[in-house]
Structures are given as C-alpha cells and as structure tokens.
Specification:
Blueprint lengths: L5 E5 L13 H15 L3 E5 L9 E3 L14 H14 L6 E4 L16 E5 L8 H6 L4 E4 L11 E4 L18 E5 L8 H11 L3 E4 L5 H8 L7 E5 L3 H10 E6 L9 H8 L4 E4 L4 H4 L6 E4 L2 H7 L8 H11 L2 H23 L1
Amino acid sequence: MRCNKRIAILSPVAWRTPPRQYGAWETVASNITEGLVDRGWDVTLFATRDSVTRARLHAVVDQGYEEDHTVDPKVAEYLHISEVFEHAAEFDLIHSNYDFMALTYSRLVKTPVLTTVHGFSSPRIMPVYQKYRDGYFVSISDSDRAPELNYMATVYNGIDLPLYPFQATGGDDLIFLGRIHPDKGVHLAIETARLTGLPLLIAGIIQDQRYFREQVEPHLNRTIRFVGPVDVAGKNELFARALALLHLNTIPERFGLVLAEANAAGVPVIAMDLGSCREVIEDGRTGFLVDSAGQAAQTLNRLAEIDRSACRRRVQRCFSISMMVEAYERVYAAIFDLEAKKQS
C-alpha cells in the first residue's frame, strides 16, 4: 500500500530506537516505522540522534538518557516531545508512543494525534488520560484498557521475525528474559528452578537494585546464573539453550514482547495467567498459563505436548510486523475519515 499522507512517529528517548538491548517501547516504535516505510508511507521518526531507521530521522537528543547519564531525563523528554509538536503542521498524523506526556500538547495543534498506550505505569498518571480521553487511542492488548478512553482498536505488537530464527530443538535450561524487578517475578522463576532442579539463566537490566540484592543474588550459583542485559544475538543464544521461557509476572502483563520473541524461536512459554498473557500465549499449544511457581514446575512435565513449529506459526499469524502495520493502517484510515468529517 502507498499513501501520500505524512506520518510522524514519536518514540521515547530513554534508549536508542531500536534499542541495543532493553527498550520495549523503542522496539515497537522502530517496528512500526520500518513497517510503514516498507509499505510506502512518508514517515519521519522522532527519536535519539543515534537511532537507526530507513525513515527520515528528526532528533534533538543525541543519546538516550539511560545511556548518557550526563543528560537530565526530564530535559531530554520535553525538548524531544515539544519538537514534534512544533513541527506538527508538516504532518497529517502524529503517532505517539510516548505515554501520557505527549497528550498535554495534543490540543495545541491541529494535526490529529494517535496514542498507543504501552501501559499505565501508575494510577497517578490517569488524570492526564482522563482529561484527554476524547483523543485517539490504541491498546496493545484487550486486557490493558482504561474504560473511559476513546479506543480505535487493539493492535498487538509486532516483532521482526527474521531476527529470531526458529530453533527446531531446545536445550535443557530454563530462561528468564526481562527487567529485574518484582513485577516480572524473577523470584518465582528462581523458585520454579529450585523446585525442579533445572538450571536457570536470568537475563535483563537490573531495574530494582534492592530486589536484586535481596531476592535474586543470594540464590545465584552454578545452576542459577545471572548473565546481565542481552542484545538480539544474546537472546537467540539463550533461546537455543532453552527448554522453556519462564514469565511469572506478578502484575497483569500489558503485552510481553519477550513472549512473542520466544515463541518465534520455537521456545514454549510458561506464563502467569495475568493480563495479556492469555492473549499472547495459547494455553496448551504455545505454552502454559499458570497461577504459581509450583504449578509452573508441574507444567514442565508437559512440554512434550508443545509443537515448537506451532509456536512459530502463531507468531507469524498474530504478532508479525506486517500484521501490526496493516492494523495501524486501518486505524489511520479511520482517523483520516473522522477528521475529514469534522472539516465538512
């Protein structure tokens, strides 16, 4: 599809777009951008200056504030967000992947703004969403919605499938990939490993140092190991060794990119049945949904029931970049129609 509409994609500036290692929102913003370029759209990506894209890149922040600690995060964020809105007249649509902050600029410009809500980080941010609830919103799962917002659709995140080659056979390790934070249930992954005696590899950024020090580090040994943050190549090394991915989140998951990435590689996922996990994982076919570490340990005996190629096929069908971008194209078309009616 080719379109003469001009789209501005607003990515966060915590990390580069796409990120070198961690950075889920930057990953999705990149995948949207590159997918739109592939389909002929005129796209400008607002991101850090070191970002990599085939679209036009517009930047006022050199590096992500999580990668350059001489930068004040708030200064970087507001220089960056204001920049896209100062150029709003150059675009037919601003597609924001920047949480609630960009909404505060949305009524100051005539260009329509679509916000993909990547998650509600706290009840304290909801007054902003409530004030701007009549804007245009997309959710990334049916489970992660605020009832009062004007949702255009649910659009599942899409991953770049060629980055995650299919692993026809797995290894003997349990793996955890994600933020080292209580929300992600690293301690429950450790409990599962201890219950089964299976080795566990833990990878990710340490977001909560006290949690790591008190609930993760004391349990590290020769079989339960922390390998730190990993890039795509590092993820694939873990997937090649994986018997299963453990994703025992303690709060409702918003989407869970790592679930789709693991399934794309053919790795079964054992996930807590909270939030979007039921939407991303097909229970009994691409993994298992559980309610506790004990239940997670029990389901490991059922992994032979999982067809690894079926895991890959489901991601191709539901969570590819092309599927995501086609869904966004439908949302864009609906917004353009609504805006045209306002002008008539």
